[in-house]
């Protein structure tokens, strides 16, 4: 069964870009506001990386329903729709990565389309819910996916109540814009620039810079080589804070069965050098 989302494609994205960038001209800069911006950026980035990506899309660890709902709420507060839609789109990407059926392949559609253009297309608001039946069986996850504007609106109201208009501009609007483009670099730049230590069937690449921006998602060639791993930085020097936080949560029993790749698979195959 397929369903369509109610809101016009890209409307929320366009409005937040306009409001956020225009409001920066009216709000005096303060370091505390910049700190709030990055705090909201990395909190919600974790909701995307650990929640939407590694948990809902790939089931790379297990957790309880309350923690599952918390990850869904934080991820949905990033204004990237809900966990069911996000997981369905991402699973489709892995099945058809860099083929004509991939929704955001730079090889097939160009860098702009892979980064942002695909989000604006109406047809990409449609998902096949039979492909994510493991998620739709949870009524609370289905609810948050259908009402995907509730978490970001709640966050915006909370930030405004505590920090006022300046906090709303930096902590919500600017933070959300940066979060969008940080996330979208994995769809676009991570399939164009970087190293390919593993021979995968797609163009996925590793980038330390993008890993820093996305809490470990920049080790994208690693991920496409072994997508079921909660650890995407395979070596000690590949910074992966999302995995580090998950391991910390594991100590308190909040998550368990955290998957990592078998050591015998982690032998780089020397595919391609870095692009300039």
Task: Give an overview in words.
The structure is a single chain. With 276 residues, this protein is mostly helical. The chain has one domain. It is 54% helix and 3% strand. It contains 12 helices and 4 strands; from the N terminus they run E-H-H-E-H-H-H-H-E-H-H-H-H-H-H-E. The strands form 2 sheets. It has a two-stranded antiparallel ribbon with strand order 1-3.
How many β-strand runs? 4
Low-confidence stretches: 1-6
List SSEs in N-to-C order: EHHEHHHHEHHHHHHE
Distance between the termini: 44 Å
Number of domains: 1
Radius of gyration: 18 Å
Number of helices: 12
Give the helix proportion (percent range).
40-55%
Main sheet: strand order: 1-3
Q: What is the structural class?
A: mainly alpha
Strand content range = under 5%
Overall geometric form: globular
Overall pLDDT confidence: 90
Main pleated-sheet profile: 2 strands, antiparallel
What descriptive keywords fit this protein?
single chain, 276 residues, mainly alpha, two-stranded antiparallel sheet, 4 strands, disordered N terminus
Task: Provide a brief overview of the structure.
The chain is mainly α and 276 residues long. Helix content is 54%, strand content 3%.
Question: How are the elements arranged and paired?
Answer:
Elements: E1 2-3, H1 11-24, H2 31-57, E2 62-63, H3 65-76, H4 83-95, H5 106-109, H6 111-115, E3 127-128, H7 133-136, H8 139-146, H9 150-187, H10 208-213, H11 220-225, H12 241-251, E4 255-256
Antiparallel strand pairs: 1-3, 2-4
């Amino acid at each position: 069964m397929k369903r369509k989302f109610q809101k016009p494609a890209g409307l929320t994205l366009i409005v937040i870009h306009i409001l956020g960038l225009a409001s920066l001209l009216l709000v005096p800069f303060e370091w505390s506001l910049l700190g709030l911006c990055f705090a909201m950026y990395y909190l919600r980035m974790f909701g995307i990386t650990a929640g939407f990506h590694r948990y809902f899309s790939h089931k790379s660890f297990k957790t309880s329903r309350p923690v599952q709902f918390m990850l869904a709420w934080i991820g949905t507060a990033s204004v990237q729709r809900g966990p069911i839609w996000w997981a369905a789109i991402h699973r489709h990407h892995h099945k058809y990565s860099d083929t004509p059926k991939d929704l955001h392949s730079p090889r097939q559609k160009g860098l702009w389309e892979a980064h942002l253009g695909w989000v604006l297309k109406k047809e990409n608001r449609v998902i096949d819910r039979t492909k994510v039946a493991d998620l739709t069986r949870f009524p609370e996850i289905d609810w948050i996916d259908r009402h995907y504007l509730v978490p970001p609106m709640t966050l915006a109201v909370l930030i405004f109540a505590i920090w006022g208009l300046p906090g709303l501009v930096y902590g919500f609007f600017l933070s959300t814009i940066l979060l969008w483009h940080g996330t979208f670099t994995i769809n676009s730049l991570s399939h164009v620039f970087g190293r390919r230590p593993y021979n995968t069937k797609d163009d996925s690449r590793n980038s330390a810079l993008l890993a820093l921006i996305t809490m470990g998602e920049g080790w994208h060639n690693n991920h496409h080589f072994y997508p079921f791993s909660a650890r995407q930085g395979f070596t000690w020097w590949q910074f992966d804070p999302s995995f580090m936080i998950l391991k910390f949560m594991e100590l308190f029993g909040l998550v368990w069965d955290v998957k990592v790749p078998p050591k015998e698979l982690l032998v780089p195959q020397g595919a391609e050098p870095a692009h300039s």
